[in-house]
Each structure stands twice: as structure tokens, then as C-alpha cells.
Amino acid sequence: MFLLLGGFFRWLFCGCKTNFYDEFQGLGKGTVFKTRHTENWLIGIVVSVIMIAIIVLVNIIKENNK
Predict the structure, then answer these.
(1) Is the pLDDT score of 64 beyond 80?
(2) The whole model's pTM is what?
């Protein structure tokens, strides 16, 4: 799941100009790390943590406004 999220967001960061299949499969050389696979995995984890944090914050704000 992290690889799919990471590949998708990496594809979006590139302005949808790259091939999504290549981003998802991690084909090619990475920019920061040696492989795109590792980069997609890390991007996926960061995006997941941010999404969970947003959901938790929205629920906290919703409960405080009752």
C-alpha cells in the first residue's frame, strides 16, 4: 500500500509527466536514494502519517465544537 501511495504522489509531484507504471513499479534510478522503490516506500509512509494526523485532528476539532 505504501508503494502505491508513494508512486502516486511521486507521479503527482512530477506534474503527471512521467509514466505512472514506472513510478509505481520503481523503475529507474532514484533521485535521493539508490532506488525509486525505497523513495516510493518512504513517500507512502509520510503521506499515510499525514492523512492519519489530519483525520485525528478533524475528529478532535469536531468533538470540541459540540
Answers:
(1) yes
(2) 0.73
Q: Fill in the amino acid letter for 3.
A: L
C-alpha cell at 5: 501511495
Local structure of residue 35 (DSSP, 8 states): B
C-alpha span between 15 and 8 (Å, rounded): 11
Q: If we measure between CA atoms, which residue out of 52, 54, 42 comes closest to residue 7?
A: 42
Report residue 36 as a C-alpha cell: 525509486
Beta bridge partners of 35: 29
CA atoms within 13 A of residue 15's CA, in its CB half-sphere: 1
pLDDT at 16: 75
